[in-house]
Write a structure and sequence with these properties.
Elements: E1 26-27, H1 36-49, H2 57-70, E2 74-78, H3 81-91, E3 97-101, H4 106-113, E4 118-122, H5 133-139, E5 144-150, H6 159-168, E6 173-176, E7 184-185, E8 188-189, E9 196-200, E10 213-217, H7 220-229, H8 251-262, H9 264-282, E11 288-290, E12 297-298, E13 304-308, H10 316-325, E14 328-329, H11 354-362, E15 363-366, H12 374-389, H13 391-410
Helix pairs in contact: 1-8, 2-8, 3-4, 3-7, 9-12
Length: 412
C-alpha cells in the first residue's frame, strides 16, 4: 500500500502519475460474507432437497431467526426491499398520496410510484437526517393515505412524534428500515414500530442475502395478507383470494441470509472499531462535522457519514474527487434529494426542502464492513487529513483543470 510520505499535492494520485493509495477499490457497501463453510453446507442441503423456492425450509428458518433477532411476532421474507415496500402498500390498501422524506435512496419513492401512488416529499431533521414531523404535519391533505418514515443510516426516526400525527389523522405509519437492521430505539429493536417495517438484505447491507428483504409486524392478520400477496394471492389451500405478485425469496438467498445473520455480532463489532478510528482521526478538523450517535438509540454503525461545511478549507466535491482517484470509492449520498431527480421534477422547479438541499451538497459516506481493517481505516483518515491540510492548493488545481477542460471542449 502506498504511503503518503511526501505530504504535498504530488503525493495524491489525482495530480500525479502515482498508483492509487489502495490497490483494490474500497466500495461503500462492500459485501459482507459470514462463514463460507456454513454457507456451503446450507447450499448443499438445498441442492440435496431440490426445494429451491416457494417458501422452503431455509426461508421459513430465516423468518423465524430474524423475528427473534428483531423482537417481532411476524417476519415475512421477500425477494427484495422494493417489493417489500410495494407489498406493504398493497396490504394496507394505500391510495393517493404517501408522505415520504426526500432525503433517501430513490428506491423508496420509486417503489410507491410503480404501483400508482404519489410520493409527497417532506424535509428531514438536521440532527439525524430522518423525516421532520413538523413538515409532515403541514403536508397532510385529504389525499394523504399514509406516512412512510426512513430510518436513514440506521438512525431511528422520531417515532413517537410521527405516531402521534398518524393517530390524530387516522393514517397508517410504516417505516423503510432498509439500513436499520440491528438499530434500536429506547431499548427496543427497530422492526416493531408503526404498522410494519421493511428491511433490505441487499448485498450492500450489514447482513445480506445476496438480494432479499423482510417485512416485520406484530399484526397477525396483516402478516397473513402479506404472505398471500407475495405468492400471487394464493391461500395455503391454493385458492386465489387477492391480487398478489411474485415476491418470494429463494432458498439460496435464505442460506446466505442465515449465514450472515450468525456473523452479525462480529460484523457490528468490526464496524464499531472502524468508525471509532474515523471519529478519533477526524473529530478535530475544522469544517468537518461528524454525525452524533442517535439519541436514545443504537445503530450497527454500518454507515459512516460526515458533513463538509463551508468552514472547511476544501469542499466536499474536491475531497470526493481526490479520494476516488485513490480507489477510495466514497459516495455523495444522496445527491440530489428525490424531489430534484428527473422523474419527480415538474416543469416548474419544485420548492426547495432546505435541509435536504443542504445535506445533498455536503455529505460523504465512507467505507465500512469486512473490506476494512484498522490499517485501512487509518489510511482513510490520513488521506482526508491531507486533503484538509492541502485544501487551497487542491481547490486551485481542480479549478485550473476545469478551465482547461472547458477550453478544450470549446475547440472541438
Amino acid at each position: 500500500m502506498k504511503v503518503l510520505s511526501k505530504r504535498d499535492v504530488s503525493s495524491l494520485s489525482r495530480f500525479s502519475e502515482e498508483a492509487p493509495l489502495f490497490p483494490s477499490p474500497l466500495h461503500v457497501g462492500g459485501p459482507n460474507i459470514g462463514s463460507p463453510d456454513r454457507l456451503f453446507t446450507r447450499l448443499q442441503e438445498v441442492i440435496d432437497r431440490r426445494w429451491l423456492t416457494n417458501e422452503g425450509p431455509l426461508v421459513q428458518e430465516l423468518e423465524k431467526q430474524f423475528a427473534g433477532f428483531l423482537g417481532v411476532k411476524h417476519c415475512v421474507a421477500v425477494a427484495n426491499a422494493t417489493l417489500g415496500l410495494q407489498l406493504a402498500a398493497r396490504a394496507l390498501d394505500l391510495k393517493g398520496e404517501v408522505l415520504v422524506p426526500s432525503f433517501t435512496f430513490i428506491g423508496t419513492a420509486h417503489a410507491l410510484s410503480w404501483i400508482g401512488l404519489k410520493p409527497v416529499f417532506c424535509d428531514v431533521l438536521f440532527d439525524n437526517h430522518t423525516l421532520d414531523p413538523e413538515d409532515v404535519r403541514k403536508k397532510i391533505t385529504p389525499k394523504t393515505s399514509a406516512i412512510l418514515g426512513v430510518h436513514l443510516w440506521g438512525h431511528p426516526c422520531h417515532v413517537a412524534a410521527l405516531q402521534e400525527i398518524a393517530d390524530i389523522h387516522s393514517l397508517p405509519l410504516l417505516f423503510d428500515a432498509a439500513q436499520a437492521l440491528g438499530s434500536s430505539l429506547d431499548g427496543r429493536k427497530i422492526g416493531g414500530f408503526g404498522r410494519l417495517e421493511v428491511f433490505s438484505l441487499h448485498a450492500t447491507k450489514i447482513v445480506n442475502a445476496l438480494e432479499g428483504g423482510l417485512i416485520t409486524t406484530d399484526d397477525r392478520l396483516l402478516a397473513g395478507r402479506l404472505r398471500r400477496l407475495r405468492n400471487f394471492g394464493f391461500t395455503e389451500l391454493g385458492t386465489v383470494v387477492d391480487f398478489g405478485t411474485n415476491a418470494k425469496m429463494n432458498e439460496f438467498s435464505a442460506a446466505m441470509g442465515l449465514t450472515n445473520l450468525e456473523a452479525y455480532p462480529a460484523l457490528a463489532a468490526l464496524n464499531n472499531r472502524i468508525c471509532d478510528f474515523y471519529r478519533e482521526g477526524l473529530v478535530d478538523l475544522k469544517g468537518i462535522r461528524l454525525m452524533s450517535p442517535p439519541e436514545n438509540g443504537t445503530t450497527s454503525q454500518h454507515y459512516f457519514v460526515l458533513e463538509v461545511t463551508p468552514e472547511s478549507p476544501v469542499c466536499r466535491n474536491s475531497i470526493y474527487e481526490v479520494l476516488r482517484a485513490e480507489n477510495l470509492l466514497v459516495r455523495r449520498y444522496f445527491e440530489p434529494g428525490c424531489h430534484r431527480t428527473l422523474p419527480y421534477t415538474e416543469e416548474h422547479a419544485r420548492p426547495g426542502l432546505p435541509v435536504t438541499d443542504r445535506l445533498s451538497q455536503c455529505l460523504l459516506q465512507l467505507p465500512t464492513g469486512q473490506q476494512m481493517n484498522e490499517e485501512s481505516a487509518q489510511q482513510v483518515v490520513d488521506l482526508i487529513r491531507l486533503c484538509h491540510k492541502l485544501g487551497p492548493e487542491i481547490e486551485e488545481r481542480l479549478a485550473h483543470h476545469s478551465v482547461d477542460l472547458s477550453s478544450s471542449q470549446l475547440l472541438r
